[in-house]
Amino acid sequence: MQPIFDAVLRNDVPDFMGLVEERESWLEERSMDQNSNTVLHMAAKHGHGELVSAIVELRPSLVYSRNANGDRPLHLAALLGDVNIVTTLLNYGWKLCSARNNSNQTPLHLACRSISMEAARLVAEETDSVGLDELNFAISSGSTCKFLVYAKDFFFRI
């Protein structure tokens, strides 16, 4: 495993920062597994909020990066339901709310699968419009956020 990803998995901020200070190109590395994640994907996926904040400050463009599944870091944070990480990523790339992955899912789809109603609310508030597929997904999945998605869609159409 690349040292930078080892530091991310251990949530070792000082080690991570030291590696980046020695070689800034570590920020552009991709994981060698089938997902081809960036360091920001990995930090978001594992709920390492302090690392997510440090990474987006060092390299804001990483919020727009996609992994092999077409997920952006916001997709992974939304699925995890981590409100702080979702907020951080939205502050750097609010337009990402409508980005679709290779499975045609938006961060809102994934937030509805998480156990965090608050994360779903944050993503829904930043979504320009809620499409019929998001509404159908929320309703068919039995998700508790179906009412949130429906209400958001209703109020945008008024």
UniProtKB/TrEMBL annotation:
Alphabetized PROSITE patterns for the sequence: ANK_REP_REGION, ANK_REPEAT
SMART domains: ANK
SUPFAM superfamilies membership: Ankyrin repeat
ANK repeat windows: 69-101
Keywords noted in UniProt: ANK repeat
Top-rank taxon, per record: Eukaryota
The protein's name in its UniProt record: Uncharacterized protein
Native organism: Arabis alpina
